[in-house]
Design brief:
The chain has about 100 residues and is of the alpha+beta class. It has helices at about 20-30, 60-70, and strands spanning about 5-10, 35-45, 50-55, 85-90. GO terms for molecular function: monooxygenase activity.
Length: about 100
């Protein structure tokens, strides 16, 4: 079953100028990863350091493989510009509502 993952991040104010390029380079790999159905990047209208990445994955297993990749050989430079730990939340479609 497809899932949607929300990755809520805040970048350091001093890294704000570099963040779009780092996000872009990171998302080239993410979007090409097996099972990725797409990623949208939202920016807070009142706080330009606050982003939410809306990731669509073919399954929880695809998402888990991606997270394992990013924790190991696919480590992204994004972590260096973050003001704190990201918040990851995963959702699936409620089919019985």
């Amino acid at each position: 079953m497809p899932i949607t993952a929300f990755l809520d991040i805040h970048v350091k104010t001093e890294s704000l100028a570099d963040a779009p390029d780092i996000l872009h380079e990171t998302l080239i790999v993410t979007r090409a990863f097996t099972g990725c159905l797409g990623v949208d990047v939202l920016v807070d209208t009142e706080d330009p350091t606050h982003f939410v990445l809306v990731e669509k994955w073919a399954s929880l297993e695809h998402d888990a493989a991606y997270r394992t990749f990013r924790a190991g050989p696919g480590k992204s430079p994004l972590g260096a510009v973050l003001a704190g730990p990201p918040l990851l939340t995963k959702f699936e479609i409620a089919t019985d509502i």
